[in-house]
């Protein structure tokens, strides 16, 4: 992380979420990601975080959380969490989330049996689901990359020309290519069969 701190592409802020989000201007980021986070907040704070994320994001909000309440408690602040990290207070789950909590403007992907280990890394009797929730705030934008069924260099070059030069110029080039291909086909000597073949 120290290596990234000097890189101007990154802004590292070490503060609780409610202090950080208040520092960000309206519509100042493309996407707000809250991955494996919202369940660590009290429910009302979670709703407040979603409202603030909507204020800050231009395009979308992406949330990942267990589906429902997943028990995870660290009462002893001196005890490391199940990953061997300090900060048990921050690892405690304080809320559970259902689809209805997000509202009608959200889309979801649910994995019904994603969480298989409990808070003590023991296999759960019944796996628990996980939710990916997506809120698109603006109309979809045109792709900035190409998706091609034909991966040949020819198809790629054709597609670039098609998108970068005027339609009339592309039509003229296409006509010239077809003429060249027809001439090339006409010049080919006829195939001859050899005896005994």
Question: Short summary of the structure?
Answer:
This protein is of the alpha+beta class and 197 residues long.
Topology of helices and strands:
Layout: H1 2-5, H2 17-23, E1 29-35, H3 43-56, E2 57-66, H4 88-91, H5 99-102, E3 107-117, E4 123-136, H6 153-164, H7 167-187
Parallel strand pairs: 1-2
Antiparallel strand pairs: 2-4, 3-4
Helix pairs in contact: 2-3
How does this structure look, described?
The chain is 34% helix and 21% strand. By secondary structure, the protein is of the alpha+beta class. The chain has 2 domains: 2-136, Vaccinia Virus protein VP39 (Rossmann fold), CATH 3.40.50.150; 153-186, no CATH class. A hairpin with a 5-residue loop joins strand 3 and strand 4.
Tell me the span between the first and last alpha carbons: 72 Å
Highest CATH level, the class of the largest domain = Alpha Beta
Number of domains: 2
Give the biggest sheet.
4 strands, mixed
Strand content: 15-25%
Low-confidence stretches: none
Count the helices. How many? 7
